[in-house]
Design a protein that fits this description.
The protein is of the alpha/beta class. Helix content is 35%, strand content 19%. Strands 1, 2, 3, 4, 5, 6, 7, 8, 9 and 10 form a ten-stranded mixed sheet that branches. Strands 12-11-13-14 form a four-stranded parallel sheet. The radius of gyration is 22 Å and the shape is globular. It starts with 10 loop residues before the first strand and ends in an 8-residue tail after the last strand.
Length: 378
């Protein structure tokens, strides 16, 4: 740990990083560029990086000694299953408010902290503020999707937050009162848990301004570590199920009905697709070739596996990130450019709602099917 000065801190920014040498500078620059009428600090917690990230954050600390506090682990605590986010906030954060921004994410508005702090000062019943965010490609060059639960400023009810799951709000847009952590009701520092806790008292105040960015499949990210690996995803799902059940008990089953509905989200995509096998068979029988799948996230992978198992002809697969073009997936489906799919496909199977909406914005004239209708949960 490095010592900090005696400034009166209003907001503490927590930046968790691990092996994010490629991204950390952009993240820190976006934090240091904040324009406020109050003092803020940046607490960087490095979880044992080995790729040169530590050298970069030490350089930032040297240049910004008053603003930055460094916490550098010798070993990776996440791999040991340790929950260090909330303990770090409780022990080191001096601010009344906490802002989150992981080392591979960044902010796009220099007044973000000021706007969110002012929003919570005005709406005292709310413990958390969130904002409109976006998902970009790993290199940050293109927007893939938007994380925007409302089309205007307003309050997100706890029931909406529980149903929405951990990806309902962009993590880099979360801003909350530190004293919110005094009673966690059995929850931990998962993004999803924090959102539920943040909504519990008076809902989450949402600012409909695009101010935070999440990189998809960035090196060292939770997405790469968990979502792309089935075994680890199952462990994650078990953890979330148990957290929800514990929260249900500790709140005297006040939200039992909505929690029971959310628990259905942990049904595998394969089971959800199997439940609609007759509808899907009719679609595939009338689909004109060539047929392509659009989307290579979890839904896309599940759809590809389902089509292969059922013997449906898939001529290729694409994704908005347009990477690995010309290669094949693990199931030997050719990866194609999205532009070529729009040009050559007679039928596109959109694996998720974002993909379906993206295709609808183009001048594509073929058949398009929204397969998230058959995989609504998860």
């Amino acid at each position: 740990m490095t010592e900090m000065g005696n400034r009166e801190i209003e907001v503490s920014i927590l930046c968790i990083t691990y092996n994010q040498k490629k991204y950390i500078a952009k993240a820190l620059d976006s934090m240091l560029s904040q324009i406020t009428d109050f003092e803020y600090e940046i607490i960087i917690h490095d979880d044992g990086s080995t790729d040169g990230t530590i050298e970069i954050i030490k350089d930032y600390k040297e240049k910004n000694p008053e603003e930055i506090c460094l916490l550098i682990e010798e070993d990776n605590r996440y791999s040991k299953g340790e929950d260090f986010v909330i303990p770090t906030i409780r022990e080191y954060a001096r601010g009344k408010y906490i802002a989150l921004c992981e080392g591979d994410d960044y902010w796009t508005d220099s007044f973000k902290l000021q706007k969110q702090r002012d929003a919570l000062e005005k709406h005292q019943v709310c413990d958390m503020c969130a904002c409109w965010g976006s998902t970009v490609t790993e290199d940050g060059t293109r927007e893939i999707s938007q994380i925007r639960p409302l089309q205007q400023d307003g309050i997100l009810d706890i029931r909406e937050v529980i149903l929405g799951g951990g990806q309902y709000l962009v993590t880099a847009g979360l801003f909350f009162k530190k004293d919110m952590l005094e009673n966690l009701y059995g929850l931990d520092s998962l993004d999803y848990s924090l959102q539920i806790r943040g909504a519990l008292r008076g809902g989450i105040y949402y600012l409909d301004q695009k101010m935070a960015v999440y990189r998809r499949y960035a090196d060292g990210s939770w997405t790469n570590h968990v979502l792309k690996k089935d075994a680890k995803l199952e462990v994650q799902w078990d953890k979330e199920r148990n957290l929800l059940k514990s929260f249900d008990e500790q709140t005297d089953y006040q939200y039992h009905e909505i929690i029971e509905e959310r628990l259905k989200a942990y049904t595998s995509f394969e089971i959800q697709l199997n439940a609609h096998s007759e509808e899907i068979q009719r679609i595939m029988q009338q689909a004109d070739a060539p047929v392509y799948i659009w989307g290579m996230g979890r839904r896309g992978v599940a759809l590809e596996a389902y089509c292969k198992r059922c013997g449906y002809q898939i001529d290729g697969i694409c994704d908005a990130i347009d990477e690995q073009i010309g290669e094949c997936t693990q199931r030997q489906t050719l990866i194609v450019k999205t532009a070529d799919v729009l040009k050559n496909a007679k039928t596109i199977l959109a694996s998720n709602r974002f993909a379906y909406q993206d295709i609808a914005k183009t001048d594509y004239k073929g058949q398009v099917y929204d397969f998230q209708e058959f995989m609504p949960r998860g």
